[in-house]
Each structure stands twice: as structure tokens, then as C-alpha cells.
Design goal:
heterodimer, A: 397 residues, alpha/beta, FAD/NAD(P)-binding domain, 3 domains, 6-stranded mixed sheet, 5-stranded parallel sheet, 8 helices, B: 65 residues, alpha+beta, two-stranded antiparallel sheet, two-stranded antiparallel ribbon, 2 helices, 4 strands, 23% helix, electron transport (chain B), electron transfer activity (chain B), iron ion binding (chain B), metal-binding (chain B), 4Fe4S_Fe-S-bd (chain B)
């Protein structure tokens, strides 16, 4: 069918990458983007880093300023939530009662942070997903304040590092044995040491039993082992769930993300990209969903290309990237190459001391990926080895 | 065309080196982007455009002059 109307639902990194790719590939029809936040598309990784630290202005985060919006011929509608998708009739239903008919739609609605039940009304219990979240949390990071961070994933670790550096008394609670438990022992031990050196009270193996409150304020957190932590603010960094509620009744499979084929297609004319998409990764041989900034851009481009290809008789391309993510903590850069999910072995391949470290991960006899702490050159040397057979000997570094 | 780089934003992903190895490199110590050719040839331009598009922090650009 001819492609004259494309709607992008979700005004984040994946959505804007898709918009740019569509125009770059020559699409000249109508292009509409809706997003539930009141802001034009912006970059999220700095929220837990420079923005929280106050070293980067929020205005700097934009991924699409007014001039670029005009250049792209983009009908950008911030503050406009989608509430439904009619796949058969090819219409997006909006919260304001309007509908957007489309020939092709890209679903890029991202994720929502997990909450703890019964804490939503507490003004000093924070999550960190949006720029507004970041500004609220930043206001709480005053020297001497007591912050409890629940969850030592990427977000929790980065926020804890920023807060501790700002003179906040930070307790970091993590149910696993180390921070970033998915990365295993050696990297986890290094990170644990890094946080403790900077004064963070790290409670691994710790689960939250209750958030204690008085009125509309949290006053502390009680852990499963009975420890009672006092808090002026609490950050919930418990991971996220795909923002697919608006797709209920659409007929799309949305368990664990919008299920797509290898071409990022969820249904005829419906494509998904970024944090919300769960697609068949041909090289990995399974469905994957990736919540990383690099993937948002790359998948937005791929989904846009394949949407256009399907409409114009072009050649669609399977989307099978090598994942990449990074995290900044206390001036250290942690780089994660490859998908480490379900790894069944790991080996320290470079340990020059002083907090530098490189660990390779194995899965089913192959190199699943590599994690490097302040060793970008070694990481680069390993890049061609990802998905190749696991080497019996460590390549020279 | 001229390649622009805002190295303060670089996250050392190496995506640009994958896309256009003749134009981009990474610093050995920091992994940050190093520009090898500020004015790419016509043959290099498609790779540079790919690099600009896939950079996860948007630190790369192409200017007319």
C-alpha cells in the first residue's frame, strides 16, 4: 500500500531516530509524533548523571529543537497521550478524544518505572525516568540529607554516585549480592568497593519490607532483616515495565514488551522500537528487549527503514545489533558490550589494578559480551569476538 | 562538508568507528571519539551520515562548510 501518513507514538529517542530516518530515506508524506510528556523529545541518560549533578542544563537535552522539527516536517504534539490502537482500521486513539488515521505507525512509548505499592502519595519518594523526575530529585540532594536508594541497577548506582558526591548520606539497598548483579562477581565487587569508598552505605542482600511514612512524607525504610533506615528522600530504582497499557484490546501481544518479528514489525503497518519493543533477534535466536540508549536510536532507524521498505517494495533488513551500554559512576566509565543475559561463565581478561577491569562473558560456548571499567581500548579489541566461539586462551591486551 | 564533534558528549560507544572507520577513531585511553578526517570524501559521506544517525549521544554532526 502507499505510505502517506505515518504516526509515531512516543516522543523519545527511538521515535525521533525513526522520524529522522524516514525523512532521510526519502519519505515525504505526513509525519505526526505524539508523546504524553509535555516536552519535545529529549535525551534521558544524562538525567541520572550530569542533570542530577546540576552540571548540565536541561535545555541542553533536546533531541529535536523547533528548527529541526520544522526541517523534518514533523507535526510534533507533546502532552498528547495515545490511549488506543485500532490495528484493523489503522487509527490511533488519543486521550483528548481525537483520532489519528495512519498508513504506518511506530510504537516507541518506552517504559514506566516500577513503583512500590502504597508509596505514590508520598512526595519525597522518587522515581527517575523523566526530566521532571530528575529536577524533583535534584532539589532533594542537599548536603547532609539522607537518601535511601532502592535498587542498585544502572539507574540506582548512578544516582547514588551523584548524590554521594554531592554530600548526601546515601544508603543503597540491593537484593542481589553486588551492585549491577547481572554483571557477576568481579565487576560487582569493584563497584561495591567504589561505592563504599565514596561513603555509600551499601546493603546487598537487602530487601525493602516497608516504607515508613508520616502524612504525605516518607520518613524511613525498613528492610526485611529488620534494619530501620531513616530517610529524607527515597529513590525507587526498581527497573521498568514496557509502556503498553494503551495497547490493551489492540490484539497485539504485549507481554514483556510489544512482540515484533525480526524486522521490528508487530502487525501489518505496525512497528515498534526502543525500550518498549520485544523482537525476534535472529542472531541470538530468541526474543529480546533492550532498555539502552544506543538501542533506541539504532532500532528506531531499523524500524523506520523496514516500515518504508514494506510499503515501497524495498528490502527489509533484520535487526540484529550487538548491544552496547555505558554507565558513569564517580568518574569511572563502565562499558557493556553484548547481551549478557543468561551467561554461563566469565573470565577476568585484564586486571591492571587501580579500579580498571575487563571481564569477558560466555554463553553456550560463545562470547556473549565484555564489560570494561575504564579500559576502552581492550573493549574495542574484543568487539569482533562477540558471538564468536569462546577462546581457550585470553587474547593479548 | 565538514564533520563536527562535541567530544564532551561522547559516550565512547564506538558506533561511529563501526560506521566510518576511515573518518572516526577512538582515543586509546579514554575511548572518546577522535576525528581522523574533518572533511570526508564523497565516498566517505554515506558512512559519516550513518555515524551521525547512530551516535547514541548525538555528538556528531555534518556542517555545510
Amino acid at each position: 500500500m502507499s505510505l502517506r501518513r505515518v504516526v509515531i507514538v512516543g516522543a523519545g529517542a527511538a521515535g525521533i531516530a525513526a522520524a529522522q530516518a524516514l525523512r532521510g530515506d526519502g519519505y515525504d508524506g505526513a509525519l505526526t509524533m505524539v508523546g504524553d510528556e509535555p516536552h519535545p523529545p529529549y535525551d534521558r541518560p544524562p538525567l541520572a548523571k550530569d542533570v542530577l549533578a546540576g552540571s548540565r542544563p536541561v535545555a541542553d537535552l533536546t533531541l529535536c529543537d523547533a528548527g529541526r522539527t520544522t526541517d523534518l516536517g514533523l507535526d510534533l504534539r507533546p502532552g498528547t497521550a495515545a490511549v488506543g490502537l485500532d490495528v484493523a482500521a489503522r487509527r490511533v486513539q488519543l486521550a483528548d478524544g481525537g483520532t489519528l488515521p495512519y498508513d504506518g505507525v511506530l510504537v516507541t512509548t518506552g517504559v514506566r518505572p516500577r513503583q512500590l505499592p502504597g508509596t505514590r502519595h508520598l512526595g519525597n519518594v522518587h522515581v527517575l525516568r523523566t526530566v521532571d523526575d530528575a529536577q524533583r530529585l535534584r532539589a532533594a540532594l542537599v548536603p547532609g540529607a539522607r537518601l535511601v536508594v532502592v535498587g542498585a541497577g544502572y539507574l540506582g548506582c548512578e544516582a547514588a554516585a551523584v548524590a554521594a558526591t554531592a554530600g548526601v548520606h546515601v544508603t543503597l539497598v540491593e537484593p542481589g549480592p553486588t551492585p549491577l548483579p547481572g554483571l557477576g562477581g568481579p565487576v560487582g565487587a569493584l563497584l561495591a568497593s567504589l561505592h563504599r569508598t565514596h561513603g555509600v552505605d551499601l546493603r546487598t542482600g537487602g530487601a525493602v519490607r516497608a516504607v515508613r511514612s508520616r502524612g504525605n512524607r516518607a520518613v524511613g525504610v525498613t528492610l526485611a532483616d529488620g534494619a530501620a533506615l531513616d530517610a529524607d528522600a527515597v529513590l525507587l530504582a526498581l527497573g521498568s515495565t514496557p509502556a503498553t497499557g494503551w495497547l490493551a484490546g489492540s490484539g497485539l501481544t504485549t507481554t514483556g514488551g510489544v512482540r515484533c518479528d525480526a524486522y521490528c514489525a508487530a502487525a501489518p503497518g505496525v512497528y515498534a522500537a526502543g525500550d518498549v519493543a520485544r523482537w525476534w533477534h535472529p542472531a541470538a535466536g530468541r526474543y529480546v528487549r533492550v532498555e539502552h540508549r544506543t538501542n533506541a536510536t539504532a532500532q528506531g532507524i531499523a524500524a523506520a527503514h523496514n516500515l518504508l521498505a514494506a510499503a515501497t517494495g524495498g528490502a527489509p533488513r533484520p535487526y540484529e545489533p550487538v548491544a552496547y551500554a555505558w554507565s558513569d559512576q564517580y568518574g569511572r566509565r563502565i562499558q557493556i558490550l553484548g547481551d549478557l543475559t543468561g551467561h554461563d561463565g566469565q573470565r577476568v581478561v585484564d586486571d591492571p589494578g587501580d579500579g580498571h577491569l575487563v571481564v569477558a562473558y560466555r554463553r553456550a560456548g560463545r562470547v556473549a559480551g565484555v564489560v570494561a571499567v575504564d579500559r576502552p581500548r581492550v573493549l574495542r579489541d574484543w568487539r569482533p569476538l562477540v558471538d564468536r566461539p569462546w577462546p581457550d586462551t585470553v587474547p593479548p591486551t | 562538508m565538514r564533520v563536527t564533534v562535541d567530544v564532551d558528549r561522547c559516550c565512547a560507544s564506538g558506533q561511529c568507528v563501526e560506521a566510518a572507520p576511515d573518518v572516526f577513531d577512538q582515543d586509546d585511553d579514554t575511548g572518546l571519539v577522535v576525528l581522523r578526517a574533518e572533511r570526508p570524501t564523497a565516498a566517505q559521506l554515506p558512512g559519516v551520515r550513518r555515524a551521525v544517525a547512530v551516535c547514541p549521544t548525538g555528538c556528531l554532526g555534518l556542517a555545510d562548510r
